[in-house]
Amino acid sequence: MTTYIIPTSLDAPPFSTWLVEDPYSHGPGGAKGIGELPMDGAAPAILAAIEHATGIRFNSIPVTPERLLDAWSKQRAKEAGR
Description:
This protein is mainly α. The longest helix has 16 residues.
């Protein structure tokens, strides 16, 4: 995400916004949160895919190519020392 270029208004198609008031009975003041939850799954899924493909486990993001190569080199050195 550090190199992601955020689109400007010139890149976006025309759109319209409609506000629909439909209070949520379980939320404070009828509010219901949206938008954040779908963003939570991508990073763990990518880390799991990297671990599945390489056997290297990462506990933090971002996993840059440099970090992956460094971890891979350390893993190979560790295996060679056995």
